[in-house]
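Here is the promised in-class demo. Please do not try to memorize the tokens; focus on the logic of going from shape to residues.
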């Protein structure tokens, strides 16, 4: 095997396009010099349609979790009642962060592998009968491969409460439609290393006007992640309060170029196709999927490991075919494996994963499935061209 041919299909980090790597090699610039404000403004504004945001997107030099923390720290004042939809490991993380900042957290527990239904949220909010400060949701619950009905959850939140609606879009912003105003999202956060085709190291926070006053008034202790500082620096001179990750921001500009060339609506369609090819291919080789078609994310697919053979698939793919998948997290550890198909990912990549899964099943179980999943996925692809 060629050692440099490694295939990364984890649900983050994801492969980085060659041209993005090149862009990140541009000479370093001083962030207090004259070039950086131009770069920052360009990227912050070109990301607006990707985040469905009416405001330029705030860029932090840290991983996705910092954006979750920023959202919580800048909204919560100790003792506030907040609701967190927990449908997997990342909802659970959001809840822990809120607890850290002293919120009175009401966890809406959803069965892992399912999406939260709008009626579920409505019943929960009504039965709470509290003045809820914010509702936190995860757009794509990466640990289960579930896409939540964010638009409907936003509309329930606003109909039943005066709460802010705060969304973690780390594992699908850059691959899916979103409209913060129409969907009534007040803060939307993401990270660089998933659908945005960048290395790890940037976090993004899109803040709607509706959240700005709350952020100004929150009494939580914060320094590096104080969004007021970022918003004020951007407003006054298109700068950041602390040293930005300049190279990654150059990379982000190249990602914007790629979105423009493909057309963002086509980026979204490509991910829908990748999802359908992957799911239909896996069904054709009789691997059980964790989520229903209706709840499935277009960026990550989770497969149940129902027997000893499927439990070994992930390792065989790595050892024999240099394909990296994701495992299960927390209570799904050992119960599933996950395939990321987001960002710099093509239909051919899906065929690559499916063909190696077939070979692995063939050698592990002696089940002759060679070509079955690939064929089904090809049919889906042909129907879409
Ligand atoms: C990956 C991920 C995060 C965490 O991002 P880090 O970059 O690892 O800090 C948060 N939420 C979701 C939904 C994710 O998929």
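The designed amino acids, position by position:
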């Amino acid at each position: 095997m060629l050692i440099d041919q490694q295939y990364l299909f984890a649900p983050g980090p994801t492969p980085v396009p060659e041209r993005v790597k090149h862009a990140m090699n541009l000479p370093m610039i001083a962030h207090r010099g004259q070039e950086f404000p131009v770069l920052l403004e360009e990227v912050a504004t070109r990301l607006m349609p990707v985040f469905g945001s009416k405001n330029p997107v705030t860029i932090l030099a840290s991983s996705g979790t910092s954006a979750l923390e920023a959202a919580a720290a800048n909204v919560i004042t100790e003792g506030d009642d907040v609701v967190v939809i927990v449908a997997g490991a990342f909802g659970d993380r959001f809840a822990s962060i809120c607890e850290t900042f002293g919120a009175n957290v009401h966890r809406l527990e959803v069965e892992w592998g399912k999406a939260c239904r709008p009626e579920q949220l409505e019943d929960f909010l009504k039965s709470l009968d509290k003045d809820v400060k914010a509702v936190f949701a995860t757009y794509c619950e990466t640990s289960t491969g579930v896409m939540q009905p964010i638009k409907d959850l936003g509309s329930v939140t606003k109909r039943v409460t005066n709460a802010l609606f705060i969304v973690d879009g780390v594992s699908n912003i850059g691959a899916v439609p979103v409209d913060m105003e129409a969907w009534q999202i007040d803060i939307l956060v993401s990270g660089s290393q998933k659908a945005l085709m960048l290395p790890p190291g940037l976090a993004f926070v899109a803040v709607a006007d509706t959240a700005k006053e709350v952020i100004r008034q929150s009494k939580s202790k914060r320094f590096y992640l104080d969004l007021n500082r970022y918003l004020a620096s951007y407003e006054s001179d298109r700068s950041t309060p602390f040293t930005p990750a300049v190279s990654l921001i150059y990379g982000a500009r190249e990602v914007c170029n790629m979105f423009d060339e493909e057309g963002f609506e086509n980026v979204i369609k490509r991910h829908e196709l990748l999802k359908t090819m992957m799911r239909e291919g896996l069904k054709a080789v009789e691997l059980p999927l964790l989520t229903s078609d209706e709840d499935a994310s277009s960026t990550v697919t989770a497969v149940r490991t129902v027997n000893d053979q499927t439990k070994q698939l992930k390792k065989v793919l790595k050892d024999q075919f240099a394909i990296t998948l994701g495992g299960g997290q927390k209570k799904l550890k050992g119960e599933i494996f996950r395939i990321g198909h987001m960002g710099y990912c093509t239909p051919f990549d899906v065929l690559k994963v499916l063909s190696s899964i077939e070979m692995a099943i063939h050698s592990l179980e002696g089940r002759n499935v060679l070509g079955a999943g690939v064929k089904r996925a090809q049919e889906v692809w042909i129907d879409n061209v």
